[in-house]
Amino acid sequence: MGVYDFNVATADGGSRSLSDYEGQALLIVNVASKCGLTPQYEGLEALYRELNGRGLEILGFPCNQFMEQEPATDAEIQEFCKASYDVTFPVFSKVDVNGPDATPLYGYLRSEAPGDFGPQYGFLYDFIAKTFPDRVGTDEIKWNFTKFLVGRDGKVIRRYEPPVTPEEIRADLDTLLG
């Protein structure tokens, strides 16, 4: 099994098979429009514009599970992404990434790359440990802008916790894309 085995809901109410991206490297990100990390959209879009031609696809999945920082409808999210950050990479329908209603894709991503969320993430770790202590030490997504790097074979390579910026991932992407 790999990422290409999943279908996801599109923002326009349709469905898309991730097998459409077979052979490409993927960076899968849970996004939100009202988060302190929302400016990462700018870095994600820059990576997409620079590396899409080399085989990178960025897939955004809005999520409202983190202090309701993505309350908008799918249509409003699309408009926000275009108007605020000129996003051209695909942003899909809003999903749950944790809990019983988590989309199967995120269940798979979490099991394949549980993460390394710990004190090295400073303020965000302190906040999560204090506010949501049940998330620490689990494979759950801790916050918006958790990123998963997927190889061209559909296998999860690595998970990047929310404070890791798109720019900090660039070297790994260059290595993967050759």
UniProtKB/TrEMBL annotation:
Coiled coil: none annotated. Keywords: Oxidoreductase, Peroxidase. The active site is at C35. GO terms for molecular function: peroxidase activity. InterPro entries: Glutathione_peroxidase, GPX_AS, GPX_CS, Thioredoxin-like_sf. Pfam families: GSHPx (PF00255). It comes from the Bacteria. GO terms for biological process: cellular response to oxidative stress. CDD domains: GSH_Peroxidase. The keyword Oxidoreductase applies. Belongs to the glutathione peroxidase family. This is Glutathione peroxidase. It comes from Pseudofrankia asymbiotica.
